[in-house]
Write a structure and sequence with these properties.
alpha+beta; Chitinase A, domain 3; 3 domains; elongated; 11 helices; Triger factor/SurA peptide-binding fold
Length: 305
C-alpha cells in the first residue's frame, strides 16, 4: 500500500520538479513599466539576434543585449503612448521603394527574403516598426537638431585638409610574374631604363600585365585608392623616376610617374551641405542618447539578470 502511494506520487513530483525548473528558466529578468522580459525571451532574442546587434559586434553580452531590449520596449511604449501609426499604403510604398532600389522583381525580392529566413509578412512588420520609429524619432530627436552657419564655418576651419580634391598621379606600371628568371628580368629592365630606354617601350616589351599594350599606362590614379604601402612609396617618387621594385603575391612590379596633381582646396560653399550632414549626424547621436536617458528616467525599470 505504502509502495503504491510512493509510486503514484512520483509522477506528481516529477511534474512539480519540471514546473519549478521551467519557472527558474523562464524567470523575469527585467521589468519595464507594466511589462516584463523573461529569460526565455532574452535567450530567444539573443540566439536569433532579433535586434541585429551581433552582426556588427559578436562580443555583446546578454546583459548588454538585455539593455537594448529594454530600450526597444521603452520606445514601443512611447509609440503607443503618443498614438503613432503608419498606414498600409506607407508600408507598401516603403517596400516598393526598397525593391526598386535593389533592382529586383517582386518574385526575386520575396525569394531573397526567404533566403534570409524571412517571410514577406515578417518583412512588412519590420518595415512598419521602422516607419513608426522614424516618425517618433523625427518628432522627439530631429526636431531638436539645429546647425548654425557659425558651426559649419568652425568645422571647415578645423578640417580643411579633409576638403580637397584627392592627390593624383599619372601612373605607368609593369609586372613580371614570379618565376625562376623574374628577378633577372627586372634587373635587365632597370639596366635598360638607366641606359635611356623609355618606360613605355619596356612595358610593351616585358610586362605581363593587362595594360602592357598601352605601354603600362594606368592613367590618372588617386593616391588614396592605392594600397597604403604602395602609396607611400610612390609619394616619394619623382616625375620620370623609376620606382624601386614592389613585390606582392602577383609578382615583381615597377612604376613610373609621368605627372602629379596635388589636388586643390575646396571652398566652403562647395562643401557646406556635406559639413551640415556631418554635424547633423553628430547632433543626432547626442540628441538620441539624451532622449533615451529621459525615457529611462521617467520609466520604472528593474533589471534582475
Amino acid at each position: 500500500m505504502i509502495r503504491r502511494i510512493i509510486y503514484s506520487a512520483i509522477p506528481a513530483l516529477l511534474m512539480l520538479s519540471a514546473s519549478i525548473q521551467a519557472e527558474i528558466v523562464d524567470r523575469i529578468v527585467a521589468v519595464v513599466g507594466n511589462q516584463v522580459i523573461t529569460m526565455s525571451e532574452l535567450e530567444k532574442a539573443y540566439n536569433k539576434d532579433e535586434l541585429g546587434l551581433l552582426k556588427s559586434n559578436s562580443q555583446i553580452s546578454r546583459q548588454e543585449y538585455l539593455e537594448k531590449m529594454i530600450e526597444k520596449m521603452l520606445i514601443d511604449q512611447e509609440v503607443k503612448r503618443q498614438g503613432i501609426t503608419v498606414s498600409v499604403l506607407e508600408v507598401e510604398q516603403a517596400i516598393e521603394k526598397k525593391r526598386t532600389q535593389l533592382g529586383m522583381s517582386p518574385e526575386d525580392f520575396i525569394q531573397t527574403l526567404r533566403r534570409q529566413g524571412m517571410t514577406i509578412d515578417e518583412y512588412r512588420e519590420q518595415v512598419r516598426q521602422n516607419l513608426v520609429l522614424g516618425k517618433l524619432v523625427s518628432r522627439e530627436v530631429k526636431s531638436e537638431i539645429n546647425i548654425t552657419d557659425q558651426e559649419i564655418q568652425l568645422y571647415y576651419q578645423k578640417h580643411q585638409a579633409e576638403f580637397k580634391t584627392p592627390d593624383k598621379i599619372h601612373l605607368y606600371h609593369l609586372v613580371i610574374r614570379k618565376g625562376e628568371a623574374s628577378r633577372e628580368t627586372i634587373s635587365r629592365i632597370q639596366k635598360e631604363f638607366a641606359q635611356g630606354t623609355s618606360f613605355t617601350a619596356l612595358a610593351k616589351k616585358y610586362s605581363e600585365g593587362e595594360e602592357a599594350e598601352k605601354g603600362g599606362d594606368l592613367g590618372w590614379v588617386e593616391m588614396n585608392a592605392l594600397k597604403p604601402e604602395l602609396a607611400q612609396m610612390l609619394k616619394n617618387l619623382q616625375i620620370n623616376e623609376l620606382s624601386p621594385v614592389y613585390e606582392d603575391e602577383v609578382g615583381l612590379h615597377l612604376f613610373w610617374i609621368q605627372g602629379k596633381d596635388q589636388g586643390t582646396q575646396l571652398a566652403l560653399d562647395q562643401v557646406r551641405d556635406q559639413i551640415k550632414q556631418i554635424l547633423e549626424r553628430e547632433q543626432f547621436d547626442q540628441q538620441y542618447e539624451l532622449w533615451l536617458k529621459r525615457l529611462k528616467s521617467k520609466a520604472y525599470i528593474e533589471i534582475r539578470l
